Fold:
Amino acid sequence: MIALAILVFAIILLGVITLWKRRSPAVLREIPAFTRLVRSLGLSIEDGKRLHISLGHGNMMNGHGGSAFAGLALLRNVAERTSVSDMPSVASSGDPTLGLLTQDTLQAGYQAAGVEDAYVHTFGRVTGLTPFSYAAGAMHIAANENVSTTILIGNLGVEAGLITDAADRANVSLIGASDDLAGQSVLFASTQDALIGEELFAAGAYLNDDVVHAASLTVQDIFRWLIILGLVAGAGLKFIGVI
Amino acid sequence: MRILTAIIAIAVGLLILLGYFLPIATPIQVLLLDWAIIISAGAALVGIFNLVTVHADKVRRRAKDNVYSAMLVMGMIASFIFGLVLRPQHPLMQAIFLNGIIIPVEASLLAILTVTLIYAAIRLLRRRTDMMSIVFIVTASLIFLASATLPFGDMPILGTLVRPWVSQILALGGARGILIGVALGTLFTGLRVLFGVDRPYGGK
Structure:
């Protein structure tokens, strides 16, 4: 019942804040990774190079689906912006269901840009069905397909190190975000700009300029403060022996 | 069509969510999840077809390193034919494809990863010289040093005091904080998908 109450509260708060944000646009703090990403989008088109977005192997049937959806939101935006380029973006994933959604998202981006005919289904690829086979396939794209920037976003574990190494050898810029703790530490050590924790889910708000995405960030902040207060209060009450 | 897919996706999402809170909706939730599992299995075949298409296209175009693509396609065809004839559980299939190729290749990749991660850690300060990078390197080195197996047991102070304190208090606290943030992000991403704001299943 508590879970239902939290969910209902979250939905109401999201609705209220979305309406409020429509009147006063959100001011987002600067995250270097997103600043670099926006720059990379423009530079890749000018340089005649492509972007490689690797969405990890998050399965839609478990808790890692959230990070996969966050990656797809970013892919949708990137696809729309780079679809008219001579070297269109390529997306890779390590889960078949995510692979289907990747292709659908890329196609939607091309439709939105009005160049649906330019879409080729091999722009969205399933490079392997296990973490390491996925990484082996994705590192090949990063190193051999005229890529300027590789964006790793989604559920990636330690195997992300193989992709970052291949990209690094080919002088490809890297932006990384994972919902996995081991993956985050690998990406922190091996990319120029790593997104830590929930920053992964902020991609939509930073790239789409959409009020619902911005509102969901604000509601996340409110929830975070409530959890902090709850943790501190709980620790204090435990310390003085009330609970 | 786009509106129809959105309506179906939102309705299915809401029914599955309701199944967690209302016992009356649980059978529908189970049924829909069963359908999702079947569709996932179908998606696996589509994924394999996609993999073959991409690599066959590379061979056809004589792209860079197309010899690896040719090997992949031939390997897939061979494992498909032998798997179909012998069945995947056959000892020959297990010996050649699983124990002979898949496991050694993945073990080798894991070994390469160890070297790669050490190299990445060494290069970290050249790539990004800031306080967090220094803390990262110092912490990793301390934990690595304190975890070393010595003939006389744990390393004094480092192994008995510093490592447990860093890993069980500082790192654990940080990890929980990150995971709470990830959980919140997942919750609100799920809500956006549920209400059709993010639509990864196509449409503007």
